[in-house]
Amino acid sequence: MSSIPIDLIVEIFLRLPSKSVARFRCVSKQWGSILYRPDFTELFLTRSSALPRLLFVVKFDRGDFHLFSSLQPQNPYGKQSSLLVTADFRMKFNRYLFLSLCQYASGLIYFLHERTKIRDKWRSHEERDVLHAICNPSTGQYAVLPELKRDRCTDFFLGFDPIDKQFKVLSIVAYRFSDNRILTLGPEELRWRKIHSPLTHRPLSQGICIDGVLYYLSRRTDDDTSYAVVCFDVRSENFKFLDEEVFPSSCPILINYKGKLGLFFRKYDVADAIKLCLWVLDDVEKHEWSKYAFYISGDDDNKIDDCQNVNVVGVAATTGEIVLAEKPSCISKPFYVFYFNPEKNTLQRVEIQGLGFGLGKFCYEDRYFVEVFVDYAEDLNVNDAKIFKPSQGLDIIWKRPIPQHPEEVRDQRDMS
């Protein structure tokens, strides 16, 4: 090592995946001093952000679920009619951990699994098992959060403070002041603490964190027919409510549009195309929005076969393209992601291969569900040593697996 210039060593490390860098930090004090330096971690994030990836959470009807990622095409528009991309396998989770909530923020995934136990046959009383976990897809490590009593109308959100480099999980109980909680991930003992919201409300959408502010859509207590955008500052833990005029539709999709909050509203009045209305929050204090409308159809080679069967999943930061993905798909059919360029009014279809990896004997049906996250970048600033326990695999979290298929019930009876 002494004969190799330090600049060349850094350049070599920058070309490695984050999982390898995490291992090499433990090789020696010299390597650790290089790989923990703030200038190295920031440069690694800059390079990773310049080549962003799509992150796929694939859930099979009656099987395990997996995490994959693939590079986002930086210039997908060419002479070819369609692009083909193979997704890289990241990690696999136990089949009993079906997700009821999945959120992404700054390199980490927060997921919640909920099971309802019926204590008597008349369903007069129910209990709910809830698992909260944070996972780093780059390293495969995770943290299981402390239990928290879950009301039927409780929503959870993951936020990231880019100044203090802290992740926080926010719990909001609909229309209550006193039951809201927040948890900070870190080396100290994880615990939920109370947090006060200045106005009771009911969250209606999944949250999105942009530059340290967590946004989600809600209804207000005083007027259940109107909507408000909730802005929660992750660092100061203060709430702000943006009361808006009547939205074009009741459930917009929240996205990061070039560093600003964007709301996508979909119109279904066009038979062979998709009409999208986009609102971009230009000024939080003045409540000023810019509004746009797009018609997405595509040509014969890049058309969307079923316009009702795709959702907007985000906007690519490096290119400004609107990214759409298919809804639940059949294993025997290709899975497509679509890139729409608003300026050129062009649509490019990209086939994603490899998502059917590792179905195993427990896949009794041939359909799967995919959640797609845009602009996934490997971030070494996420300090796994301070946030995560040593990874043992999420397949051991649940001690009381519930059979999901008659054949499994019969197998367990035979074993007993």
From TrEMBL:
Residues 1-47 form the F-box domain. It comes from the Eukaryota. Pfam families: F-box, FBA_3. PROSITE patterns: FBOX. SUPFAM superfamilies: F-box domain, Kelch motif. NCBIfam families: F_box_assoc_1 (TIGR01640). This is F-box domain-containing protein. It comes from Microthlaspi erraticum.
